[in-house]
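Obj.: predict assembly geometry.
Materials: sequence records (below).
Method: joint structure prediction, all chains together.
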Amino acid sequence: MENKEPKMIVKTNVVRVIGENNPLRLSSGKYLAPIDIAYETYGTLNQDGSNAIFICHALSGDAHAAGYNSLDDKKPGWWDNMVGPGKGIDTNKYFVICSNFLGGCSGTTGPGSINPATQKPYNLDFPLITIADMVKVQKLLIDKLGVKKLLAVMGGSMGGMQVMQWAVDFPDFVQAIIPIATTTKLGAQSIAFDAVGRNAITADPDFQKGNYSQDNPPAKGLGIARMIGHITYLSEKGMHEKFGRQLRNADSYSYDFNSEFSIETYLEYQGQSFVERFDANSYLYITKAMDYFDLEEKYGSLSQAFNKTDARFLVLGFSSDWLFTPAQSMAIVNSLEASGKFVSYCNIQSPYGHDSFLLEPQKLGKFLSSFLDSIYEPRIIKNETKTNLKKKDIYSRLRARVDYEQIESLIECNSSVLDVGCGDGTLLVNLTRDKNISGRGIELDEQMILECIGKGLAVIQHDIEKRLSNFADDSFDYVILSQTLQTVANPEKVLKELLRIGKKVIVSFPNFAHWRCRLQLALCGKAPVSEKLPYGWHDSPNIHFLSMKDFENFCADLNIKIEKKIPITKNRLSPVKLIPNLFAEEAIYLTSK
Amino acid sequence: MENKEPKMIVKTNVVRVIGENNPLRLSSGKYLAPIDIAYETYGTLNQDGSNAIFICHALSGDAHAAGYNSLDDKKPGWWDNMVGPGKGIDTNKYFVICSNFLGGCSGTTGPGSINPATQKPYNLDFPLITIADMVKVQKLLIDKLGVKKLLAVMGGSMGGMQVMQWAVDFPDFVQAIIPIATTTKLGAQSIAFDAVGRNAITADPDFQKGNYSQDNPPAKGLGIARMIGHITYLSEKGMHEKFGRQLRNADSYSYDFNSEFSIETYLEYQGQSFVERFDANSYLYITKAMDYFDLEEKYGSLSQAFNKTDARFLVLGFSSDWLFTPAQSMAIVNSLEASGKFVSYCNIQSPYGHDSFLLEPQKLGKFLSSFLDSIYEPRIIKNETKTNLKKKDIYSRLRARVDYEQIESLIECNSSVLDVGCGDGTLLVNLTRDKNISGRGIELDEQMILECIGKGLAVIQHDIEKRLSNFADDSFDYVILSQTLQTVANPEKVLKELLRIGKKVIVSFPNFAHWRCRLQLALCGKAPVSEKLPYGWHDSPNIHFLSMKDFENFCADLNIKIEKKIPITKNRLSPVKLIPNLFAEEAIYLTSK
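Observations (raw structure tokens):
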């Protein structure tokens, strides 16, 4: 016999949040009453009510996010790999709520509910609803549960839309906003897929203008809609790796129209099993709510939409998601960052397409737990966490120490700082602790991003050369580019951008004209290798080589003002005074326009 | 009144290629007779019959590729922007044939044709057909027309599948094979889309197991299938740029289930108009033929499939095509190249997705005409064509001349040569003319690729660092890497790969230890700038800097044998003899394992 963990048994509750005589005004202007909400909770609300997390589900989800509804249940809730004791969303620590959204078909009022006016199901008489309507009703539930504030609201896909609507409509109620694999508005292609799905449902003769009986739903139409949806949830690559061109149960083609490729039968099975658990009318209402969602149009701009909230945002996307793309995640991040909100972002590498938010519990869980913990149990890390560092990384950290102290000396207290290429966030943490700065970071490495998030830093995963244009002029008191200028493709463009977005720019780089370098080339005829330039000509991440003189000429050509320079050398904390371009191994410059 | 070009009027002919008493054996083992083919021709077959081009159409195309069928016709043929006098496929020069494929619904025998056994339409009694069946019938047509050989077969999408089948089944009949935006086998995602489309058709109650009347076809089902297909033909970006979230004819949401986004109405219109011109049963048969197409499975491997042909291949893909992706085009190229076939490839930059093959007549036309001309009217270009060169390019050409002559001196006659980073192909043309080599090139720049193709060279557009692994050990007598080692990210990996695939490798690079460089760094403390290293530290495409000594140490470390070195300097044709690492501006090495 298998030795299994005991099943976590949860009950789906239903509560009336809108009574029959007190109808809710919807976005469309129509009124709806009564409204019941199905929900589940996991974990325990703590005494000061500071550990409550609300989870918003996606198109085909429901209130049953985790655990089992009974001992006989074969399948756990839809996000059971993420929500539970010791999991990414740790129910030993947090009190988690999930509810079926308005218009759904799993306990919450929707088109399948009884219309009090007719005592029959609403069907297509149910009013059209929006994401904002869903969130309005979710807030009523939270109030009803006696929860006074939320630590976080999170959700993937359409769940992420609700998450963002929470930030817009209840800006002071939530501390952390976590939209995952989502967008502030569908693009034309997604609207198109939704429209085709709806067409398939309404074209089914069993649809009967929505007045089908539960015994005879428009199964073919809903199945086709689900098949289309399912294709968009997987990546082309992931799907091909799983199914390829396998035939279901034959070695050669059947030369008839039966389903014979494994992917065909898989999709048909997905379509059929969806029909058993989902209502076709709900599908119409929900996809329409998605199509309508457009924070930009509704509020004039995204910045305007998010204007009122001071919540911290963690935006997560997945590299292979082609339904709600990384570019769409980036658009959310751009607007938040441009308006000075606290936002961290990572485009998590995953092969599973849009469904990654359900299929990457390990990777996603680390981001969620780090971010939640950084808010719920904030800490400044004094001693660095030990990780498996590569030799290159160790070197870069040792090196960093010396110039970090010098860089700190250049920065005034209470200023705003952008660290471009911030690594694990050490410098930003130091500056926050010692100078009370408000800091932000840009970094490319996923693991580094995770470390920064754990330290409570706002950090964006992005290529710095493409990132800077998002910031307005003079967005920061200081921008730091430490040991990175020599690795970017276009140093001139980068430096100009840094000087546009920062009032002052601090640049550090290894000095190529140090005497050891000069000697090696002049006397030995070899490309220099030194402690500050430790790589061979062929394996160096440095793609430009410059001396202090080169940099100073460059600044003169570009009309960049050098306010201060600190030539440094190893094992000495005080700057090099004698012929710095000959004796300094590294140089730090404070520049301005 | 508009002054228009006179309409080119063409007639669609129908010819019987299989008589009633002489049935054709199909891939499925079933027999079919009679078979009629609808076709059109444009231009005139020349006296030696060397100018005939056959065009294969895609899923929804037909024989009417170009011109108008009558003066009243409003729309020209489906590829009218490509086929005609002076166009990409110039009918003043070439004789062009296009026919509706087997199983189609535009004049060629298909499921809508009369079954002689019943005197009623076949409908689903029509046997399943394959791409190979289609091509078999196309060949019968070509024979019937008295065409003894084809200069080229070309086509996009499913047309490209037929093109490749031509190369497999009639390897000696065609000189040039041009598959465009296509694949040798559908992946799981494409099979999935096809399957959903077929499900939508067969789920339509009007489908009647295929026995619908022409007055009452399964319009909704076929319309949905077409809508799905149409989404896959456009890129997400292209679609969004064209339609975005525009509402059709309102400023605000209607809050009902009518189509309101422009993209919805556009797709529905596409679906409806398709129903008027296309037969649902044909759609089933054709998509199934596409799903079945798998050259790799059928012949053991792609190399095996293409084994018998000596035709020249031009494979073209489009950057934004997500239905038949550039990676799928690359797979065709890889197998052809690995088995030593003549193949050129370009991934044409275009925003229009899969439909680019219909929507980029200018770009695509240049590639087609250059390639066709290079075979029909071959030439070796002696004087370089004048183009608008950037300063950087001019410099690189001037520089190239000196080391080209030295490189030529290292290469034996009648050898095989791969030029990695071949530019406009000048060196390969010179070597072909002077040393009778058989050459191939790799290059990244689209315009350079086009120039190479015009010169009759086999050239692949690819990043050299990702490309080399495709070649087998010792594939070439010589591999040339001219002035490129210092620009690749990983010189060690590149050099090792070059030595794996070439018996000898010729490498040239600027010598960083030339006395001028040494002096500039040693005395002036500046990063060197010289004639051979003409860039500033910040704007150089060179990302590594190496001296002759560095390279020689590097070769010693990697056990690379230096067979010959030619240190050169400007304005002198003879090699530098005195202290080359001090006096040579550039070095050419002949190396081997």
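Conclusions so far: The domain at 189-292 of chain B is CATH 1.10.1740.110 (Rna Polymerase Sigma Factor; Chain: A).
To do: check interface contacts against the pulldown list.
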